[in-house]
Design a protein that fits this description.
There is one protein chain. The protein has about 350 residues and is an alpha/beta fold. The relative contact order is 0.13. Strands 1-2-3-4-5-6-7-8 form an eight-stranded parallel β-barrel, surrounded by five helices. Helix content is about 35%, strand content about 15%. It has two domains: about 250 residues, Alpha-Beta Barrel (TIM Barrel), CATH 3.20.20; about 70 residues. The protein is globular, with a radius of gyration of 20 Å.
Length: about 350
Amino acid sequence: MHENKESHNPRQNSENSGIAPKYFSHRFCVAPMLDWTDRHCRYFHRLLTKNAFLYTEMVTTGALIYGQADYLDYSEEEQPVALQLGGHNPFELAQCAQLGEQRGYQEINLNLGCPSPRVKKGAFGAALMQDIEQVCVCLKAMCDVVSIPVTIKIRIGVDEQDSYEFLSQFIEKISREIDTVIIHARKAWLSGLSPKENREIPPLDYPRVYQLKKDFPKLNIVINGGISTLEEAKQHLQYVEGVMIGRAAYQNPTLLTQVDSELFNAQDPLIDITASIKAFYPYIEQELSRGTFLKHLIRPMLGLFQGCAGARQWRRYLSENAYQSGADVSVIDRALSFVAPHA
């Protein structure tokens, strides 16, 4: 087990892949969010920050193995980016991990945090936390076939299994296979709460995550849940290796424009919000030429200009007009007229 702050797979074998992993850090991550962190969103986020580590939406093993769409599609500009998988079959997870490595993803992450009924029915996501032996089998299967890091995203507990003893025993066992764990500092209720309620109702318990770091000092721990500002991120970084933000990244993507300078001692890539939008235009026009609709491309921008005069008009104009047939960047230009003088 290594004590460096970058993810490392103790079982990695460089002969398994001809792809040389790029340098990346978990110091600041944007969470995998279903229906949000698609390839368009990740491309836009990368314009705002060069150092944040990005994650795909959760992709199930069934979708990858049996689906017709290319669920692994991404742009090289998004790197570093990790693939998050959902599943419970070790053979299928290993197969999908290999596919992810072959396509150039820098990490494979196993989702053990999603509490949705569909995921529960499939016996993966947060439900899989209840079967630690199966989790370890799955992790070992993936670690044995890829040379890139394998990580895991968990909750601090599931249903009635929410004691610190349960969590520490869980961590002790999985740390035999991997050395980086992303922890959402809330428990998950598999019955009685919707996925949205599971992100809000179970109380946050950051001290429990901090305690894990004390008890497992060689483990790289990334904390997640309720983090909405870079100041909050800095506070957490006093106790753990990394932070992961979720909803704040799309509700207020402007905060990403200061990640590099505030957390990595690096220059921020763009000078203002309008510049970030203009920098997105070539990608938008390329995607439009391929048949992508503008409505799918403007979603990561809707939360821009939060707190600025005209922000509501910006969101409303985009929402009402990006869905029209033939909509192009002129729609965004028009929306900018409501806010650009104030940004």
